[in-house]
Specification:
Number of strands: 0
CATH architecture: Up-down Bundle
Shape: globular
Number of helices: 12
Structural class: mainly alpha
Helix content: over 70%
Strand content: under 5%
Radius of gyration: 18 Å
CATH class: Mainly Alpha
Amino acid sequence: MYSEIFTVVAPIFIITGVGFALGRFNTGIDTRSISTVVILVATPCLVFSTLTSLDIDLTTLGRMALAAVSCIIVAVLLGLAVLLLVRLPVRTFLTSLALPNSGNIGLPLVLLAFGDAGLALGISYFFVVALFQYTVGASIISGQYRYGELLRQPLVWSVILALIVVSTGLEVPEVIAKSTEITGALMIPAMLIMLGISLTQLTVSDLGPALFVAVARLGIGVAAGLGVISALSLSGIEAGVVFLMATMPTAIINYVFAERYRPDAAKVAGAVVVSTLFTFAVLPGLLLLTFFIAGVTPQ
């Protein structure tokens, strides 16, 4: 079991480490351009390719989406209670506690842990988190309603097209299927490399709050994941994917929005760095618990 966990964890560390080295040695990589390609092209292609190529029904996808919404709502409520209790600014830290990094770290983990089936389930979860991040999350941080952003996200349209294909049984032309498969394959390694580069660019300005947010994010994720798995009676790979995605660290996008709208964005940067490193430190144990919950061994 431990050697199998190592085969899941090691690629995450290695590819992220490559990104960290690239950032550390100041190679001049334009991460903004890479992230634009990943968000606008690679991610929608991966979503469409995965959802249309695997035999997963709409009921399963809907159940995963419901689990994601439920986890986020529980995390928001718990995060709000924690921040009010310790008297930390809600608009600064609520999204850091409630919205996990289900893209950069979550999707590679569920792919390595559960294979293509896990990736499809993870994408269903990730899509909901991404919607919350670009709408509710951005609104909390900025204090402005930004739900019009939805229609400008290619990710939304890729999911709509995939649902049409899945629900109607349409056959995707081979040239489209191959093109989206190849392009979508860019997403996961590119996300991990960008994560590594980002860790060299963000700094921890205040260790106390950052460490508190890191520990609280994991605790809230564990509580939300276990609670939703029990409430929805999830089992097998579905339960494992929900638990793993719910327990991921603070998402980098929280800092992106904070830098744009908040005067204390440096505190969010610190939370992202410490939360990511803390999750990496406990990742073997987290995976061991995930496999126990799923009742399966890694592929």
